[in-house]
Amino acid sequence: MEETKGEVAVPQKQGIGAELGNLLRSNIRDYMMYIALIVIMAFFTIMTNGGFIQARNISNLINQAGYVAILAMGMTLVLIVVHIDLSVGYVAGFCGAVCAILMTKFGMSEWLAIPIVLLLGALIGLYQGTLVMRVGVPAFVTTLAGMFMFRGLLNLTLQETGTIVIPNEGFNAISNGFIPDFSLGLNLHMLTMIIGVALVGLMIASQIRDRQNNLKYGFQVMSQPLFIAKLVIFAAVILLVFYVLAAYQGLPWTAVIVGVVLFIFNFILNETKFGRYIYGIGGNAQATELSGVDVKKVTQIIFVIMSTMAALAGVLYTSRLQSATPTAGLGFELDAIASSYIGGVAVTGGVGRVTNTIIGALVITSLTNGMNLMGIDISYQYIVKGIIFIGAVALDIRTRNK
Amino acid sequence: MSDIILEMRNITKEFPGVKALDNVNFQVKRGEIHCLVGENGAGKSTLMKVLSGVYPFGTYEGDIILNGEVQQFKSIADSEAKEIAIIYQELALIPELSIYENIFFGHELASGVRINWNETIVNAAVMLKRVVLDVDPSTKVKHLGVGNQQLVEIAKALSKNVKLLILDEPTAALNEDDSQRLLQLIRELKADGVSCIMISHKLREITAIADTITVLRDGSTICSLVAEQDDISEANIIKNMVGREMDNVYPARGDHELGDIAFELRDWTVEDPTRDGKEILHHVNINVRKGEIVGLQGLMGAGRTELALSVFGNTPGYRITSGEILMDGKPVSFRNSAAAIEAGLAYATEDRKGNGLILIQDIKFNNTIANLKELVEGLSINKNEEVTVANYYKDSINIKAPSVDQKVGNLSGGNQQKVQLAKWMFVKPNVLILDEPTRGIDVGAKFEIYTLMNRLVEEGMSIIMISSELPEVLGMSDRLYVMSEGTITGELSAEEATEEKVMALAISA
């Protein structure tokens, strides 16, 4: 029975200044996050005398962020529908160990072992999703039990062998290697630059297409100078990142994998019916059910996706260490959940974007990486991450209530 | 002390956009049983919430005078301190605790910080004796039937030494025996000097027990009837409950032929497994023709929403023990709401905010969620087409919002309801069930929604309108069913239906 509160700006005739102001105000939450990431990176750059921002470390950072980002994207879906998955760390550890066994003990190639492990992840998700949605055990309890079980399974898998060192170079390249190059004799990784330029081209083309489409339907669009400014800024950021990478050894394979997963997730959430249903369930599950959506099935599929992503993260992590160890997976769920919330997933559900979750994962990984470079004790690292995590969520709740 | 224990003087209580109570005056004599009657939404519960401090002092206008003193209750604790206790329709007991723990919950018998359990049990047994409940006080409340739970509630009130007891529809969930026991207990309490205010729809009980009957209608006091001197026949009470001028707030419907039966429900019987298999719908038979508006009238708790939900894919998981659904004469069954929608049925829920709309999403999201397949090209949703669709409905049914990007949670009740209608119009169903389509919305928006309903049936849709508002049901229906306690108690044509007839059927079971 509230009266209409919103007088959301329908910008008629206004100057660029006012339009820019509106844009900033309505996306303040996103911008705060970008600024936070920049501040954190700047801080570590200063504290490490520039060591943090060196191309070598940036490549390193991307490889470190990879498995966190993969987990966090899956977790974002789970959190949007107001469930949780605490088991992802040990599911990742277990799946990584299975992958190592398949390659070393059974002599499989990585091309066979990895799909098998992803399928294993999907089955784990099916089991947990079924418990949550069909039996009615709360996700917190189901996945807490999963934490126990998969930790045990991880230990069991590696009981005979102990830590397995993986000899497959192809497998280890996933999280340590770079895409190949054809040298032109320049001190620059050419394929990386080409991909960077191609991405900018694609970005510009799709933005222009959207804008023209909007104009065709007679909708309000951003004014032309602002639109061009936006394209220039985006292009500059992308090119800068790719240039830094190209000046070193090129684009890491991890970045390619994360990029592909990000593209798919972003497409699902923003463009498909399935994505709509996810936001609908998070906003009001009952209303969504009564709109003819099979809420149980959709949620079950989300758990399958989550555990599949956990398996993929396990592969990335195992590749990163070039070995499977019994401690793999410890605390992964914390980083994944924190990344999602820092990235702006609402604790009450129904809100969240995977593109922002990636920023959240970069924030968390930058903290780890930067503090390691500074030689800060691990105990303090946990405390700092905890403070930033709770600060971000508290701020989010305050700004959302307004 | 005077013989007036309570006087509520010129009480006015407003909610945003609605005046729930308008200058209500209400007097209770010491040691009497005072019944409060009126239609749903007449203001009975609101008045009692003002009295008990649920709506604290300052949120209403007027005075509460108890034993000659003006009171300023800021919370339920304040009113309890003045020996007033209220027992709600939904019982406030904790099922997993024992009877004695429940009776003294919130005012535990303690010396220092430590609860004296022996004392508690002994005292609880005394209270149980007073309410004539012969059960071991250590029994868990969840093992008691509803009738006995009600008695425990009263025992709890008595343990607080209550002088004014308020009962909100105490017999609504009870069978005949339990009801009689409860009424007998109320009479005994009266003999002990406890005054009692009872809200009830059961006129037979009221006329049997009341010393005074106050009738509320549309937030105002209509009359106070004293049993010894006034006419307290059921007919007179009903007349006062409904006797409103029928003003012409209903738009005229264009002439159109009614078609064949589009939807029919035969012998529909439903049990609720979460309430020990209680039968909530008994052998319901209803139908609606193409182009017809059929009203389904009944008071709150009559089983109307349960009927709609059990038909519309049965999302609450009721046990359907008999009956069948026919659409266009063909038997159908719906595994879930998606199947119901697929078959051409739609249901706009009573509780817009609870299970109708996704408040944190915008108008276009809500408008299209039930029919996204219409917007999908390949894998992806055509978002421009989506905006076009939402804009079409926004203009077509006059949703007042700056744009379709507006969050639905920020809209007024009337506009939210229009979004809900737009959502189902986009699905283009053959049969639309509207559950309390105008609850909580202002007169202007109501008129627009009635007009829209007319437009839909003229286009050949069939509408089942569930409503507890008598004038609306009478003003809009071609034909109407009346429901009471899960049973269809009558079917009336528009010509033969009067407020008195419908109300009599609604409270008949």
Please provide a written account of the structure:
The complex is a heterodimer of chains A (402) and B (509). Chain A is an all-alpha fold and 402 residues long. Chain A has a domain at 26-36 and 43-177 and 295-401. Chain A has helices spanning 16-26, 28-47, 55-80, 88-104, 110-135, 139-157, 169-176, 190-216, 224-247, 253-271, 273-283, 285-290, 295-321, 332-342, 354-374, 378-401, and strands spanning 164-165, 323-324. A two-stranded antiparallel sheet of chain A has the order 1-2. In chain A, helix 4 packs antiparallel against helix 5, helix 10 crosses helix 11 and helix 15 (354-374) runs antiparallel to helix 16. The two termini of chain A are 19 Å apart. Chain B is of the alpha/beta class. Chain B has three domains: 4-242, P-loop containing nucleotide triphosphate hydrolases (Rossmann fold, 3-Layer(aba) Sandwich); 246-344 and 429-509, P-loop containing nucleotide triphosphate hydrolases (Rossmann fold, 3-Layer(aba) Sandwich); 357-427, no CATH class. In chain B, 32% of the residues lie in helices and 28% in strands. In chain B, strands 6-9-10-3-11-12 form a six-stranded mixed β-sheet, with helices on both faces. Chain B has a six-stranded mixed β-sheet with strand order 18-21-22-15-23-24, with helices on both faces. A four-stranded antiparallel β-sheet of chain B has the order 2-1-4-5, covered by helices on one side. In chain B, strand 7 and strand 8 (114-115) form a beta hairpin. In chain B, helix 4 (117-130) crosses helix 5 (146-159).
Number of helices of chain A: 16
Residues in helix, % of chain A: over 70%
Rg of chain B to the nearest angstrom? 25 Å
* Helix/strand structural class of chain B: alpha/beta
Written as H for each helix and E for each strand, in order along the chain, the element string of chain A is: HHHHHHEHHHHHHHEHHH
**Oligomeric composition of the shown chains:** heterodimer
Number of helices of chain B: 17
Ends of chain B: how far apart?
Answer: 42 Å
- The CATH C-level name of the largest domain in chain B is Alpha Beta
Number of strands of chain A: 2
Head-to-tail CA distance between termini of chain A: 19 Å
The CATH topology of the largest domain in chain B is given as Rossmann fold
The pLDDT mean of chain A sits at: 91
Q: Based on helices, strands and strand pairing, what is the structural class of chain A?
A: mainly alpha
Ranges of chain A with pLDDT <50 over ≥5 residues? Answer: 1-12
> Which chains have the largest interface?
A-B, 34 and 50 residues
Can you tell me the CATH superfamily of the largest domain in chain B? P-loop containing nucleotide triphosphate hydrolases
Architecture per CATH nomenclature, i.e. the level-2 architecture of the largest domain in chain B:
3-Layer(aba) Sandwich
- Order of adjacent strands in the largest pleated sheet of chain B: 6-9-10-3-11-12
Largest sheet of chain A: 2 strands, antiparallel
Quote the average pLDDT of chain B: 89
